Amino acid sequence: MTRWTVAVLHCGLWLAVRWRYGMTPAAAIYALLLSWLVVLSLEDLRTGLLPNRLTLSGTVVGLACRWWLTASFWSGLGGWSLAVTIMGTLAAVSRGGIGWGDVKLMGLIGAFLGWRQTLTALLLGTLLGGLAGGWLLVTKRKQRRDTIPYGPFLAAGAILVVLGDFGLDFGLPWP
């Protein structure tokens, strides 16, 4: 992907965040998250790896933003815990099917979004990844044992949660 493509993608996402949230601190934090997700997704597509220096620093920034923005640090920590627990369990039982970089990426998403939105992002990312994987198998572009970077689908799920309104609050009040 060229630098111009990345710049246009960032600008488009920032405009969408601005349109959705206005000129608020939440908009700035969500724009930061989406930028982090774009960089990590492109790195996963390019190398098949999600660098610790990006995923772990993003997690710390996400928790700090949750604390600063909404005083719901515990929701961010809960999102991180939920994401790392679910994805860590899947990574452990999948024998390499899900990488530990994906676990840390989902932890970053959880730290920024809180536990309820993290669960929604994980469900959407899994659905998108499954649909893409099925399409690649049906069209014979990938074989059953081939690997597909999962990070971009997890990132897409988080982007949809940030920009969309899915109403998956499980009957519980915010945060």
SSE order and pairing:
Blueprint: H1 3-21, H2 25-47, H3 52-70, H4 73-93, H5 100-113, H6 115-138, H7 151-163
- Proportion of residues in helical segments: over 70%
- Summed up, the helix count is 7
Weakly predicted, low-confidence segments: 171-175
Tell me the radius of gyration: 16 Å
The helix-strand sequence is HHHHHHH
Number of strand segments: 0
The number of domains = 1
Mean pLDDT value: 90
Structural class: mainly alpha
Distance between the termini: 37 Å
Shape: globular
Strand fraction: under 5%
The biggest sheet amounts to: none
General description of the model:
- It is globular, with a radius of gyration of 16 Å.
- The protein has helices spanning 3-21, 25-47, 52-70, 73-93, 100-113, 115-138, 151-163.
- With 175 residues, the protein is an all-alpha fold.
- 76% of the residues lie in helices and 0% in strands.
- The protein has one domain (3-163).
- It has seven helices and no strands.
